[in-house]
Write a structure and sequence with these properties.
Blueprint lengths: L8 E5 L4 H13 L5 E4 L10 H5 L3 H5 L2 E3 L2 H4 L5 E5 L10 E3 H10 L4 E5 L8 H5 L3 E4 L11 H13 L20 H15 L8 H16 L5 H15 L7
């Protein structure tokens, strides 16, 4: 697991809506980031709208630090990255989120990633404080990411370099295929119900029809719970309609 100091601080500069701060906290927490820093949030802090949007990332919100300026927010950071789709007249290296994440993971000292206000993004003076610009390839005709989307892109790329720090969710355990006897019972049950309905007529096609039916039923590899459920369905269909009392 990476040392805590390599986890970048997520700095939201003049965020406007509490809901967006909460969603950004949720995005951070999904990928193991907990250091949220807020610069002059428009509606003050704490903001009651942030909690529900965070969907359980309460530790991120509870430990969020508030600063008056970007310079104060990144004062302890040796490496500062500004997320923006434009250079805004500032000549700096431009990295993809993947490239920036590699640098952050390899660097010594604390790093910070700046995210601007929802409507306008980072100002030129904000970007000037950064050592590099972070951007992502997007449709040139619609260069607009919301705050949480931008945070989750950077957090995800950072997490990819963390080895065992994050765990891929395991697939749901699957039951083994049912024994052949149970499958034969299902097939026989269905054939018994279809027989009086004339499904296997004419007789000249009965064998081929039964074979096709068997092929369909043997293909999925039903487990015993699935077969039991299907048998229950057939039994229910075989009974008369229930009447409401």
């Amino acid at each position: 697991m990476a040392h805590t100091a390599t986890k970048p601080a997520i700095v939201l500069v003049r965020p406007q809506l509490g809901e967006n701060i909460g969603k950004a906290a949720r995005a951070m927490r999904n990928f193991g980031l907990t250091d949220m820093r807020l610069v002059a949030p428009r509606d003050g802090w704490p903001n009651p709208a942030a909690g529900p949007a965070a969907a359980g990332a309460d530790d991120v919100l509870g430990n969020a630090q508030v600063f008056d300026s970007v310079a104060d927010a990144v004062a302890d950071c040796a490496h500062v990255y500004a997320t923006t789709v434009r250079k805004r007249g500032v000549t700096k290296p431009v990295h993809t989120s993947e490239e920036a994440a590699r640098e952050i993971n390899a660097a010594t000292g604390r790093s910070a990633i700046l995210f601007g206000p929802e409507r306008s993004g980072l100002e030129t003076d904000d970007v000037a404080l950064a050592r590099a610009i972070v951007t992502v390839p997007i449709d040139p005709g619609f260069g607009s990411l919301n705050l949480a989307q931008a945070v989750i892109l950077c957090a995800y790329e950072w997490s990819k370099g963390q080895g065992q720090a994050l765990v891929q969710p395991t697939q749901e355990d699957t039951l083994p295929p049912a024994p052949q006897a149970e499958l034969e019972g299902l097939i026989a049950h269905l054939e018994t119900m279809l027989e009086p309905k004339g499904y296997f007529l004419p007789e000249s096609r009965a064998e081929a029809t039964r074979r096709t039916l068997r092929t369909i039923l043997t293909r999925p590899g039903w487990n015993h719970l699935e077969i039991r459920t299907l048998r229950g369905v057939l039994s229910s269909l075989g009974r008369g309609d229930r009447t409401e009392d």
